[in-house]
Amino acid sequence: MLEATIDRPTKRGRGLSRLVVLSAVLAVALVVGVLVGLKIWSSSDGAGSFPQSAAIEQQYGVRFSRIAVVGDGGLVTLTYVVLDSEKAGRFQSDVQHPPELRSEVRDGGTKRVSVMKQGHTLRAGQTYYLVYQNTKGALRHGEKASIELGGLSLRHVPVL
């Protein structure tokens, strides 16, 4: 009669298997971490830096802080921080002359403000926004745009 022998792993073999699995998991985690870090680092140089205009801030009492394409590409928000409540109130109540957003990549832009709330007190330090119709997809995520307002211009603004 033949005897069947079953090789049972030794304690050393089980420890080695666990070490191999742990090393593989750590290697995968390291690679994923490096790739995520590179993605964040490479995208932050354009999207993280928002230009400023002392002339616009002085004249209109606002500092623009963000342009974002939203609403499945059909809307654009222009976010700003109020620096001077009185000047910002005049800026926001001038519905006939809203800031124009222009693409720096292609012809076209938009000045069709869909939401421009009026009649409330703007507080210095608070963030507010305007909502535009993204006319013919003039602005696209990842590109640069210009904000034109009353003969002044803020260029190379990242579009989120």
Description:
The protein has 160 residues and is α+β, with helices and mostly antiparallel strands. It has 3 helices and 8 strands; from the N terminus they run H-H-E-E-H-E-E-E-E-E-E. The chain has a 4-stranded antiparallel β-sheet with strand order 1-2-6-5. The model has no long low-confidence stretch (mean pLDDT 81).
Strand and helix map with partners:
Blueprint lengths: L10 H37 L6 H7 L1 E9 L4 E8 L2 H9 L6 E4 L5 E2 L2 E3 L11 E7 L10 E6 L2 E7 L2
Antiparallel strand pairs: 1-2, 2-6, 3-4, 3-7, 5-6, 7-8
Low-confidence stretches: none
Sheet bearing the most strands, described?
4 strands, antiparallel
User: What share of residues is helical?
Assistant: 25-40%
- What does the radius of gyration come to? 27 Å
Strand order of the largest sheet: 1-2-6-5
SSE order, one letter for each helix or strand:
HHEEHEEEEEE
Through-space gap between termini: 77 Å
The best one-word shape is elongated
Number-wise, the strands total 8
Average predicted local confidence, pLDDT:
81
- Structural class by helix and strand composition: alpha+beta
